[in-house]
Write a structure and sequence with these properties.
The protein is an all-alpha fold and 161 residues long. 70% of the residues lie in helices and 0% in strands. The chain has a single domain, classed as Globins (Globin-like, Orthogonal Bundle), CATH 1.10.490. The longest helix has 25 residues.
Length: 161
């Protein structure tokens, strides 16, 4: 379960970047200046909670199909209640990290991933799955990089080998 939670957190971080692209599509009104868009929170630029949920769903689907890392999530994916809770925690984590109104109530990353044996390659695979989800929703490079920049520092608390 810890491996799944870790993967979900990583995915959440990656999905945050995807939400930025969705927000840009929402805010594409020509009357809105680039300066105004830059002053808006990442949460708003991503499109808010609805967009974050969409990215998380895609991200989790990507992870489920990724044979490099899906074993970390097998038990969670097999239990609809656990999966729903996991996705909710991931959405809240990304929402909070992007400046939104949500409050993440899960474990800290070090505690959640302790003993899972997550490698740098595992972490990188998860990030790739997140980027794939963000790209599907056409999240802008600026937002994607901002999201990955927020999530990247978590790697030290997640990777054990």
């Amino acid at each position: 379960m810890k491996k799944l939670f870790t993967a979900v957190l990583i995915v959440g971080a990656l999905m945050l970047g995807s939400m930025n692209v969705l927000a840009q599509d929402t805010m594409s009104d020509k009357s809105m200046s680039k300066k105004h868009m830059k002053t808006r929170s990442l949460y708003h630029r991503l499109g808010g909670k609805k967009a974050i949920k969409a990215v998380v769903d895609e991200f989790v689907n990507n992870v489920a199909g990724d044979t490099r890392i899906n074993s970390f999530f097998a038990k969670t994916a097999a239990d609809p209640k656990r999966l729903k809770k996991f996705k909710g925690l991931l959405v809240d984590q990304i929402c909070q990290a992007s400046g939104g109104p949500c409050h993440y109530k899960g474990k800290d990353m070090k505690t959640a991933h302790k003993g899972m044996g997550i490698s740098g390659a595992d972490f990188n695979a998860l990030v790739e799955d997140l980027v794939k989800a963000l790209d599907k929703f056409k999240v802008g490079e600026t937002e994607k990089n901002e999201l990955l920049g927020v999530l990247g520092p978590m790697k030290g608390d997640i990777v054990e080998k």
